[in-house]
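quick one, two chains, predict together pls
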Amino acid sequence: MADTPVVASLAIPALPTPASSLSSTPFSRLLHLMWRERSGRWALLFLALLVAAALAAPWLAPFDPARPLDPGAGAAGPSLSHWFGTDLTSRDVLSRMLYGSRVSLAVAALAALLASIVGLLYGGVAGFAGGRTDGAMMRLIDALLAIPRILLLLTVLALWGTVNVRALILLIGLTGWFSVARLARAEASALREREFVLAARALGAAPWRVFVRYVLPHATGPVLVAATIAIGQVVVLEAGLSYLGYGVPQPTPTWGNIIRDGRETIASTWWLTVFPGLALVGTALAVNTVADRLRAALNPRQLHAP
Amino acid sequence: MIAFLFRRLLQGVAILVTVATVTFVLIHAAPGEPFAGQLDDVRFTPAQQAELRRQRGLDQPLATQYVRYMGRLARGDLDVSLAQQRPVRTILAEALPRTLLLMSAALFGGFALGILVGALQAARAGSWADRVAGRITVALAALPDFWLALTLLLLFSVRLRWFPVSGMVDPTMHEYLSPLGRLRDVAWHLALPATTMALIFAAVVARYQRQALLDVLPDDFVRSARAKGVSERGVVLRHALRNALLPTITLFGMALPALVGGSLFVEFIFAWPGMGRAAVEALSARDYPVVLGTTLVSSALVVVGSIVADLLAAAADPRLRRG
């Protein structure tokens, strides 16, 4: 690879595709584009507040999330001292939600990151390789996408037994990359025939180098949108799994676990279902809105699509 | 059209074979050996364990086991439930029609409501009503299905007592009802679970339908219809809608995995005795043949559904038949 510096110095166009390249769109410009629309502004503000609240949970939480405040008292509805009420073992729901947001958001972010990396690599390799390799790799994705994700997860959980948080992140991430791979494959497949990729190849750059230097960076734009959507999906998925009792192990508070705590007494303890649920809905909505704005910002032709 | 159908069926079979292979890999990649729960039982002597292993074919090479596994599945044998001691096929044959009833009610309601809302939005694009409906559909589409199910249950069954809390029929009265009364009983129990799924699906359909209509409204045939003097409502409902249905049909195939997954939570919460509930109950009993069977049957459902969606789309648009 003596000639790779030459390839690098030809360092291809500054603005190869304004449509899909992330490298041409600095982070601040992206933020600015999202901020321009009112919905994007609300969503970003909501998420910023949420992350800040999760980080500052130890200082913000009025009570210890694990300690029963008045053993034997049972659940109490919202009041001035407990805004979101207390649960069946007399723990403060607001404090549990604040601490729970740390777990819920961390699981979502890490699982989505894992799914994006695996999907980007798998799809990128398939699209870049082309031909039969591409065909075979994508048929596997077709099959994996036909299995409803929650059932794939439950199958694995049934076979593996209960899992800790780390294994859960791994499982959710490894069952979430199929659609990302499809996206990345489409991008890489289109990039394969682009002049700057052909030029790099013609100059003798090894395939893996062309892949890492020229194909992957240009496929990140759409994958970033997919990753954002994935975060919202995982927040909801983790809550659903925890609700069924197969997510984050108790007694760790997560939004799903709090809802699970109230499932037997739902008729008399509505606050255990409603407040964590609203946090879930708000987060999913905000993340989807950000993904929507991000898509528009990365693809100016769609800027005015709804 | 026949060649198209044949090609799609072949693809569907290939996908199902891959799905079955994936499940085989999952079973054997799991820590410990399959049926560890049974085989580890201390009450079994080593000789009995070896006998059980031989009966299950676990002493054979992996390749032989794979061929046998695929052969069993091809004959529709889904193994025996560990907890219920009945064939998984029998359990799922009872549960599947109930899940299909729930899903078809949800699909029908979702499509009807979604197309209606989407069409009304497109007819008055940019208006105050369009914007409000847009906000509502975005929010609805983001709702976690299990949370919407719990909220509707809380509101309409627990507080207002309009609908039953759980089950598919009234446990005591159903036997004594007239045929029509039984039908009403099932419909009454079906209302909330189906509405939960239909509302979320309708929101997605409405967003698609609105955009699809706005995409065809600038077309020539729409202008001709307007020039003929067709009212604006007639233009949207009679001329444009027919051409804009195609993306929505495609949506049917794409949304199926999520709908099957959503039905799992909804069935669990409303105690609807379908496949999803069977899977969740089997999971708590570590009854993995049932969970596995549900996964395989659900995937088959998704594959069949996507073939149906493709056929509908091809029927609606002859250009797709060549693809």
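The mean pLDDT of chain B is 82.
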